[in-house]
Amino acid sequence: MTQGAAFLQNLAAAGFVALGIAIAYRWYRERGRAQAMLALALISLAIVAALGRVGDPRHPSAVLSIVEVVAFLLSGYFVLLFRNEFIPLGTFAFQAANLLLAISIVVGVVDVTLLSRADSRAATLIGLELIGAWAIFTGEPILRFWLASRNLPAVQRSRMRFLSFGFAVLIAISFVSILGGSALQSPAATIVVELFVLAVVPAIYVSFAPPALLRRIWRMGEENELRAAIQDLLIFTPTRQDLAERATVWAARLLGGSAAFITDADGKVIAHAGIEPARAAHLMAEQVNDSTRAPDRVIAVPLPLTDGQGSLAVVAGPFTPLFGSEESSQLRAYASSVSAGLERARVTERMAAIESNKTQFLNLASHELRGPVTVIRGYVSMLEGGLLGHLNERGRKAAVVMSAKVSEMNELIEEMIEAARLEDGALTLRLVEADLREVARAAAANVAPLVDSVHKLELDLPERRVRVNIDPDRTRTIIANLLSNAIKYSPAGGSITCQVRARAGIARVSVSDPGLGIAPESMHTLFTRFGRVITPETEHLKGTGLGLFLGRQLARLEDGDITVTSVPGKGSTFTLHLPSASASEAPANGAPPDAAAATEGHVVGARARANRRSTD
Amino acid sequence: MGSPTSSTLVDLAPGSLLWFPGHAGFLPFASTEAGLMARQQLSGRGSPTHVLMIEDDPSIADMYRVQLEHDGYRVTVATTAELGFITVAENSPDLVLLDLLLPDRSGFEVLISLNERLPNHPPVVILSNYGEPSMIDRGRSLGAVEYLVKSRVTPADISSQIPTWIAVGRRGGQGES
Fold first, then answer.
1. Chain B contacts of A421, Cβ < 8 Å?
2. According to the model, what pLDDT value does residue A58 have?
3. Residue A477: which of B18, B57, B150 has the nearest Cβ?
4. If you count residue pairs, one on A and one on B, with CB atoms under 8 Å apart, how many are there?
5. Exposure check for chain B: N or C terminus, fewer CB within 10 A?
6. What is the CATH number of the domain that holds B94?
7. Tens digit of pLDDT for each residue in A118-148?
8. CB-CB: which of B20, B131, B150 is closest to A474?
9. How many CB atoms lie under 10 A from the CB of residue A57?
10. In terms of Cα–Cα distance, which of A464, A435, A442 is closest to A593?
């Protein structure tokens, strides 16, 4: 039993020495003042433990005893200094601690040198004073650490708790051994005490150097939650600046730091959370200038940015004293995700900017073009009307051509404005009940001037009215556009048919041409904005590439669509589908279903709505 | 509505295939038979009808002037909102053709000050490069008798409409909202 107790005492002492060596080595590798304080505390404890096992306990050497007492007190004092690195002590508290240390050292030295044979009551009092001082030095910090650990990420939390637990056990054992007196002299009691002391060694060890397996176990619970949150952040944050800012918030949370920031290649702070930019820049400069002496309250890893290597840094908070290689590698992995996310956001932003520039340009250009076109059109109409003097035959012909060309320009401008409106969601349809046959007739009349000697336009209309709820002007334009396309893309001429049919609640206008047709691989560009099918046969034909895009979008705003079938070399059929107006919606008072007077409604054009009925 | 005969004036131009002619205006178009006689009747006792154009683009102003003077109107051009307002106040023209984009203030603001300070001001027709439904609605609610997009109408179209607009103005067509 006695041998067992002695063995355990030796083992515990060896454990503390090993702990001291381990943290000394770690400090040698990682540096940092806070780390140094903890290392000094543990090394002092190791000295105390080692000295307790050398020499004859019955005839203690005075020198060794003095060293032991001083080392013991210092081990507590260093824990306080360790805490001071994160939560600075007030001047008063600091001075009080220094005074307490000085008094305790004097008391300890006096005890060892002069009072070694004093009665046991005095010995107990002196022991209580020494252990009390030590308990004050260590107790306050570990209580704070324990309380603070509640809000920290799992790994940090566990580490703080193990550290607090270790020191708490040591405090408890010290009091028990001084107050327990002779009751604890028995080998059995020694064994129990030493088993507790032995448990402290791994607890403190994992607090500063937790093995990977343990970290993984600690983290398991929050891992998935964290990963999902960070993934959302990196994938769905729309802009780079937003993403950078949110990424710093998450970086701080990830490591349990109090603040985080991102600097660009020039060291300029581009995003920060929980810290003033100036302070962040200062800390970063310290890191860059001398990384070995930089405070270990900051952990910084490289962050690849579009314009060079930036940094992502996390600043330890008052309660996050321990940044080790674990945090470093975790932050590194996170930084590479952030970097990828930022790149993704950059591309998204760029695309959005290009799209919005296109729309703005469309809007601006089209309105600016209206001014000059107004003047040209006005004078040309006056020339034609003979207001500006009489033209000869050739002049009159020229005026007619100019007039037609200006109308063409006008038409293109209107298309551009309509496209810009559609993109801005500023397009408003005026839905009324109309006869689709009338609309098709009007469209055919619109394109009549385009029908030349080689083309023939055939209207195939049913006998009965085809009632639809549409914006008649826009619908007429859609059909006219399909008809003019049919003429344009049938350069060899032929018969173009415009057929109107209604069946099963759907009204259809089909425009068929015997023209060039469309290759299957080009189909997908047909209905896109500015999408034109360019082939050797069509490259000389003019167009903005807006007609079909607008046609389909407008048709969808009317709850319809445009579809196409085509055989290259044989021709194409474009079909406008529209929902029939149901009989129940017809005016009940027997009034003629005059278009303008009938059911009227507004549809606000928005892309979301237009896309809802996607049939591609 | 959808038939070619009842379409707006723009469609009378051959080959024009406009995307959005429906909102070019909101008054039914008058027949184009209005001639010099009609104008002189309107202006009363032979003195020519006085049209004020508030328009800062001289090429557009000159163009309209050629047509309107040819058709027997007296035309005054004001190149800023301020000049326009003063001219209305001092010369009381029979009709105002108002551009929206002016160097000092918007045409809408001119219309607002006219409504506030000269409640009996002559009828105002807005001529703009912008045809957004929201702007047309605003013009209408401010009491303009017509809102036209410049590029959609020729000077002759405008000239032929003037008697109608003045008649509407006399009937108190303005100021409604």
1. 132
2. 59
3. B18
4. 124
5. C
6. 3.40.50.2300
7. 667 777 788 888 889 989 999 988 888 888 7
8. B20
9. 8
10. A435
Could you count the other beta carbons within 10 Å of the beta carbon of residue B47? Answer: 10
DSSP secondary-structure letter at A567? E
| Residue A188 CB neighbours (<10 A) | 12
C-alpha to C-alpha distance for A88 and A100, rounded to whole angstroms: 18
- Residues B24, B131 contacting (CB under 8 angstroms): yes
Handedness of CA A318, A322, A324, A326 (dihedral sign): negative
Backbone angles phi, psi at A613, to 5 degrees: -100, 35
B16 contacts on A by Cβ (under 8 Å) = 407, 410-411, 446
Q: Are residues A581 and A450 in the same domain?
A: yes
Once rounded to an integer, what is the mean pLDDT over residues A5-21? 86
Confidence category of residue A49, pLDDT binned at 50, 70, 90: confident
Domain of residue B67 covers: 33-170
B3 found inside a domain: no
CATH number at residue A521: 3.30.565.10
Q: In chain B, which residue's Cα lies nearest the Cα of A439?
A: B2
Beta-strand relationship, B146-149 and B124-128? parallel
Angle between helices A120-148 and A154-180 (to 10 degrees): 170
Residue A23 near residue A43 (C-beta atoms within 8 A): yes
Inter-chain touch A414–B132, beta carbons under 8 Å: no
Q: Flag whether A13 is in a domain.
A: yes
Looking at the complex, report in whole angstroms how far the Cα of residue B122 sits from the nearest Cα belonging to chain A: 25
Domain that holds residue A164: 2-210
Contacts of A432 in chain B (CB under 8 A): 1
The amino acid at residue B92 is S
Q: Does B131 touch chain A (CB under 8 A)?
A: yes
Option in A403, A410, A421 nearest B151 (CB): A410
Q: In what order do the strands lie in the sheet with B146-149?
A: B74-78, B50-54, B95-99, B124-128, B146-149
Residue in chain B lying closest to A424 (CA): B132
Give the residues of chain B that fall short of pLDDT 50: 1-41, 43-45, 174-177
Please report, as a single letter, which amino acid is at residue A185. Answer: Q
Token pair for A115: 């009072």
Interface test with B, best of A407, A424, A473, A558 (most B CBs within 10 A): A473
Give pLDDT, residue A597: 39
pLDDT of A320: 56
- Kindly state whether B28 is in contact with chain A, defined as any CB-CB distance less than 8 angstroms: no
- What is the ipTM score, two decimals? 0.73
Number of structural domains chain A divides into: 4
pLDDT, mean of residues A439-458: 87
Q: Which residues of A touch B63 (CB under 8 A)?
A: 375, 378-379, 382
Say if B19 is an interface residue toward chain A (CB within 8 Å). yes
User: Looking at CA atoms only, how far is residue A547 from chain B in angstroms?
Assistant: 9
The residue of B19, B68, B135 whose CB has the most chain A CBs within 10 angstroms, and thus the best one to mutate to test that interface, is B19
- The verdict on a CB contact (< 8 Å) between B150 and A476 is no
CB burial of residue A422 (10 Å; 0-12, 13-18, 19+): buried
Q: What is the side-by-side strand order in the sheet with A259-263?
A: A269-273, A259-263, A308-315, A298-305
Chain B positions touching A482 (Cβ under 8 A) are: none
Report the CATH number at residue A250.
3.30.450.40
In a domain, A414, yes or no: no
Residue for token pair 């859609």: A478
Residue A47 to residue A68: CA distance in whole angstroms: 7
The pLDDT, as a whole number, for residue A30 is 66
* Shared-domain flag, residues A464 and A378: no
Cβ within 8 Å, pair A473-B2: yes
The count of domains in chain B is 1
Provide the β-strand partners of residue A433: A469
Tokens 């703009």 — which residue? Answer: B128
Whether residues A473 and B20 touch (CB distance < 8 A) is answered with: yes
